[in-house]
Write a structure and sequence with these properties.
Helices cover 29% and strands 24% of the residues. The radius of gyration is 24 Å and the shape is elongated. It folds into two domains: 205 residues, TIM Barrel (Alpha-Beta Barrel); 123 residues, Lyase, Ornithine Decarboxylase, Chain A, domain 1 (Beta Barrel), CATH 2.40.37.10. It is an alpha/beta fold and 371 residues long. The strands form three sheets. Strands 8-7-6-5-4-3-2-10-9 form a nine-stranded parallel β-sheet. The chain binds pyridoxal-5'-phosphate.
Length: 371
Amino acid sequence: MNCLRRCWAEIDLSAIKYNIEQYRTCLKGGTELLCVVKANCYGHSDKIVVPYLERLGIKWFAVSNLIEAEHLRALGVDGEIIILGYTPEENADDLIRYNIIQACTEYTYAQKLNESASAGRVRLHIAIDTGMTRIGLHGDAKTDADDIQKIMALGNVSVEGMFTHYAVADCADEDSIAYTKAQTEKILAVDEELKGRGVSLKCVHFLNSAGGVYHTNEKSALARLGIILYGLYPDPSNPLPFEPKPVMQLKAVVSQVKYIEAGTDVSYGRTFTADKRIKLATVTAGYADGFPRALSNKGEVIIKGTRCKIVGRICMDQFMCDVSALDDVQAGDVATLFGREITADDIAGLTGTIGYEIVCGIAERVPRICK
Ligand SMILES: *Cc1c(COP(=O)(O)O)cnc(C)c1O
């Protein structure tokens, strides 16, 4: 069987190329692109996306953990790979074996990696916490530089860079803009302090998707491009200088079409009752595919170019929609659950979350198909 025509996600590689080209025009100086491919490329399938990124000439990748990093190596990636999240110290030699750069949160963590490593040096980028309050050194420039020098003195690690992560780079209000500026100044102050001590780190980086657009800065060696790569907005209420093209389209088929009379209840909990005779289609996707149950009686899907309201509760594997406006709908027709006209950001808006969570939440059982 090549692919079950039930519920699938189409991945548009030309949209990735377009998003990268547009995003590059926002960067200044020598800022290089790093593609953030954690969480299976935000649900888009690293097997499909990463080899394509390498063909486009991308040299830097970031993942969340060692399993993802090893997976990229198994796919044949020979570019640089940074683990942005946590790796237990007992895996220090795996980091060395696969030539992975590890984010380092603090001196004591570097010490643990240093003690566990026996196969060479663990490559590190030191995280600097400038305001996200998640990971990293969080002193002033002097104490952070002290810590970095202490880490550099360890024999089994090698400090190649440092980075920070913005908390509100996507927000357009003045307070957020000032906050992001202050975050930038903090990491640059650590860099200045180190330079004053004769230490020059190869790779200092602080831009995420939003940072590269709204706070671009040539002093960042890398822009860590995530959400915009996949064609979604860091914050849909804040316009971008270009319209990113959504890469994923979630589709499913109609399995049955029937008329129901006024007074007929639809789906679990009988939360929808037809107030007139309507034409109803059953669609073969549900919350177990990652299509949010919170869209029950709220969302719409597109069938033959027409928006059709979801009626009743979304079930685990199926849901129903009102197709009264369609003359010639039948079993086997394709429904687009999100993609271009209704985007993952739109779905997120309806369900109280962010587009990131919608695409990351598409289940493993949904085949990803390259289009
Ligand atoms: C996930 C992540 C990114 C990418 O963020 P986007 O908003 O998707 O661009 C960049 N840097 C770090 C440290 C991250 O964890």
